[in-house]
Design a protein that fits this description.
alpha+beta, Peroxidase, domain 1, 2 domains, four-stranded mixed beta sheet
């Protein structure tokens, strides 16, 4: 239920941001605000707590938003979340917003795992090949895992492209024992 709710709120803010050609800026502000609250010892938990009167917390949040450099729409969005008792959903909204913004921009994020660090040219080549495969711009995070032995394992959502030597050896091993 929370994931569906988060996606609805994220979609609403993304729509406003898209209309103003600021959807990436809105996402950065939303994520930055959440990270700032999470870093402030207990601030996020306090804003979500039923132990304090909602009106008091709402005024405190309104003061913080007013002193911030947030776009007024992002600030009002945060105040609305609090007013509706949905502020605890903010981390999920931030994640959903990022995914929806990436989708809007035709961007797919994923990871590529290799036995050793990849050179910039190698990473570009892998990204290019995956872009052709998916029809989207691909942004990859590199993970180094010596257990791969050689080759690569690329993960883009549900798509997994595994050319690792470890997987090939496991396949040969299973054929020999079958």
């Amino acid at each position: 239920m929370w994931e569906i709710l988060a996606k609805r709120y994220a979609r609403a803010l993304l729509s406003l941001g898209r209309d103003q050609h600021k959807h990436r800026e809105f996402g950065a502000q939303l994520g930055g605000f959440h990270r700032g609250l999470a870093a402030a010892d207990g601030a996020f938990a306090a804003l979500c707590s039923p132990a304090y009167p909602r009106e008091v917390l709402g005024r405190a949040l309104a003061e913080v938003v007013a002193k911030s450099d947030l776009d007024p729409l992002v600030g009002n969005f945060l105040l609305l979340l609090h007013k509706k008792g949905r502020f605890a959903c903010l981390p999920r909204i931030v994640a959903a917003y990022g995914e929806l913004a990436d989708e809007l921009d035709g961007l797919v994020r994923g990871t590529v795992t290799s036995a050793s660090p990849l050179a910039e040219g190698e990473l570009s080549a892998v990204s290019g090949a995956l872009s052709i495969l998916t029809g989207s711009k691909v942004e990859l995070k590199v993970v180094v895992d010596p257990g791969v032995i050689g080759g690569l394992v690329a993960r883009l959502g549900d798509l997994v492209v595994d050319t690792s030597l470890r997987t090939q050896l496991d396949r040969v091993g299973s054929l020999l024992t079958a």
